[in-house]
Amino acid sequence: MASKLLRAVVLGPPGSGKGTMCEKIARSFGLQHLSSGQFLRESLGGGGEVGVLAKQYLERGLLVPDHVITRVMMTELEKRREQPWLLDGFPRTLGQAEALDRICELDLVISLNIPFETLKDRLSARWVHPASGRVYNMDFNPPHVQGIDDLTGEPLVQREDDKPEAVAARLRKYKDAAKPVIELYKSRGILHSFSGTETNKIWPYVYTLLSSKIPPLLSDEEN
Questions:
Q1: Which residues bind AMP (predicted)?
Q2: Any bridge partners for residue 7, and if so which?
Q3: What does the DSSP assignment read for 107-133?
């Protein structure tokens, strides 16, 4: 368990390696990795009011709106008031950042800056297992059998918004929504930006930053 109740967020566009970075941080520093995508999938399966609401949007091929995601996340964070955590995929908009402010004070925000071309290539090579959210990349993390999930043997799909023609619009939309969030955290002096094309090369710098805030459980090389 981390010695301080550290509350951190990892921001980054789709395909920036947020999930991988969060897993590394969680392992090395004993923080809970809280993924908005994971909580959304769980709420869909749980049959609660918010899950039913989210399902209506997803079944029509629409993005789940801000207020629904915010309700899912606030419910989960309320349960973890006494725990150190790391948020992945939330907040994505100023409205979500303001909702987060109402229940906690963040210590640290990590922003991943990845070149547009790298993101485009990564997303276009990305296939997912819908039920679990497991992500494969055909270039550097392919499944053992093409088109099949390693653990369940179920088929993988390419999300509509990962298809090459949709990627540019999706990245633009992310950038527009994220800009005021980044500015907010920058103005508070808690934003730390890291640029590069490979998670493994950015990782040592992220590790050094976090080590200055809380004692690590694993060394840089162990991860």
A1: 36, 41, 62-64, 89-92, 96, 170
A2: 85
A3: SEEEEEE--HHHHHHHHHTEEEETTTT
- pTM, entire model: 0.83
Residue ranges of the annotated binding site for AMP are 36, 41, 62-64, 89-92, 96, 170
Which tens digits make up the pLDDT trace of 14-38? Answer: 889 998 999 999 999 999 999 988 8
- Position 1 scores a pLDDT of 41
Binding residues: 15-20, 36, 41, 62-64, 89-92, 96, 126, 135-136, 170, 199
Domains of the chain with bracketed CATH: 7-222 (3.40.50.300)
Which one-letter DSSP state was computed for residue 220?
G
Consecutive H or E run containing 193:
strand 191-195
**Catalytic sites, residue numbers:** 18, 92, 126, 159, 170
Annotated binding site for a ribonucleoside 5'-triphosphate: 15-20, 126, 135-136, 199
- On the CB side of 43, how many CA atoms lie within 13 Å of its CA? 26
Higher pLDDT, 50 or 175: 175
Q: How far apart are CA 104 and CA 88, in angstroms?
A: 16
For residue 44 the two structure tokens come to: 């869909």
